[in-house]
Amino acid sequence: VMTQSPDSLAVSLGERATINCRSSRSVFYSSNNKNYLAWYQQKPGQPPKLLIYWASTRESGVPDRFSGSGSGTDFTLTISSLQAEDVAVYYCQQYYDTPWAFGQGTKVEIK
Amino acid sequence: QVQLVQSGSELKKTGASVKVSCKASGYSFSGYAMNWVRQAPGQGLECMGWINTNTGEPMYAQGFTGRFVFSLDTSVSTAYLQINSLKTEDTAVYYCATWLEVAHWGQGTLVTVSS
């Protein structure tokens, strides 16, 4: 089970947004030293867009204001300087085992 | 480049069946499992399960056994999701997705079920 906090977040333009994700069990695989944790952004009417994988690796083309951190069971997505186009719902996902599991989503809005 | 292209929107009556397709290109189809994800209106993402594209063995997540069927046609690199005995609560967008180094998702297929 993946649990995100908060469920929603209102941040002023240019300010930092932080989303947390906790897994009920570790998603760290010691044999390759990787955390099987991804972050997605979803805007209305669109499929989820991969932002971060391996907990902290930014997908190609994703702005560097997006960053991921954490290990084991606790993870964080940070948007360092919120832009208008970042308004969306954000999901964490574990792909350590199957079936995949997603957090319930965090809605990010402009204050 | 890797692409997953899904079939178009469907409007069905309760009790009917629907079959959603997901055509893969740009990679070795049989090398990577295909996952199915449901998103009900205004709700989050829910993994329905996955199918081993090498053996054809499906694995269904809790809550998706019985009426849901994953299948393949490897000759055309296509995965299918069939939902039988449709209920209004099956109304959702259904996504196929696979993981090759990074995640790749289809564009989604809206299935609307009305009584």
Please sum up the structure shown.
The complex is a heterodimer of chains A (111) and B (115). Chain A is mainly β.
Helical segment count of chain B: 0
The stretches of 5 or more residues of chain A where confidence is low (pLDDT under 50) are: none
How confident is the prediction overall: mean pLDDT of chain B? 96
Helix/strand class of chain A: mainly beta
- Overall strand count of chain A: 13
The number of strands of chain B is: 11
Percent of residues in beta strands of chain B: over 45%
SSE layout:
The complex is a heterodimer of chains A (111) and B (115).
Chain A: E1 2-5, E2 8-11, E3 17-23, E4 28-29, E5 34-35, E6 37-42, E7 49-53, E8 57-58, E9 66-71, E10 74-79, E11 88-94, E12 101-102, E13 106-110
Parallel strand pairs in A: 2-13
Antiparallel strand pairs in A: 1-3, 3-10, 4-5, 6-7, 6-11, 7-8, 9-10, 11-12, 11-13
Chain B: E1 3-6, E2 10-13, E3 18-25, E4 34-39, E5 46-51, E6 58-60, E7 68-73, E8 78-83, E9 92-100, E10 102-105, E11 109-114
Parallel strand pairs in B: 2-11
Antiparallel strand pairs in B: 1-3, 3-8, 4-5, 4-9, 5-6, 7-8, 9-10, 9-11
